[in-house]
Amino acid sequence: MPLTVYWLNHRQSVLVYEIVAPWTMGEFYNALIRASELQASVDAPIFILYDFRQGERFPRDFLSGINEMMRRRRESVYLRIVVGANVLLHVMYRLVRTISPQLGEKFVFVDTMHEALVLLDTYTPNTPPA
């Protein structure tokens, strides 16, 4: 499945979006719905991990999904960690941040899953994202 959403741990504190190319906007919207369902059972702030190590390509109509991302955006997030971003993803992030600055908040980019897990283990809520 190109887009899978699941809890990384039993405490339900890290929500993972595992992205495998190619994927479609329909699959993206389904992943947003699934994430909302999972998050509904948790009252505490969470971490969100976007694993792009195998999903380096975007659908052509990706920017059309910004409104849906804003609508489903969770406010109580400690940090959003992006793993394995390529140059295109960095460009897309800057573009999304320009269009909707709120969507670009609390993002950190790392190259490996190991870096992401270390960040999760060492992050303290009072520390601004790197």
Question: Notable features of this structure?
Answer:
130 residues; alpha/beta; Phosphatidylinositol Transfer Protein Sec14p; 5-stranded mixed sheet; 5 strands; 34% helix
User: CATH superfamily membership, which one?
Assistant: CRAL-TRIO lipid binding domain
What's the architecture in CATH terms?
3-Layer(aba) Sandwich
SSE pattern, N- to C-terminal: EEHEHEHEH
Give the domain tally: 1
Annotation field: number of helices: 4
Which structural class should the secondary elements be placed in? alpha/beta
Number of strands: 5
Q: What ranges have pLDDT less than 50 throughout 5 or more consecutive residues?
A: none
Mean pLDDT: 87
Oligomeric state of the chains? Answer: single chain
Strand order of the largest sheet: 1-2-3-4-5
Give the strand content.
15-25%
Based on Cα principal axes, name the global outline. Answer: globular
The name of the CATH topology is Phosphatidylinositol Transfer Protein Sec14p
* Overall radius of gyration: 14 Å
**Assigned CATH class:** Alpha Beta
The largest β sheet comes out as:
5 strands, mixed
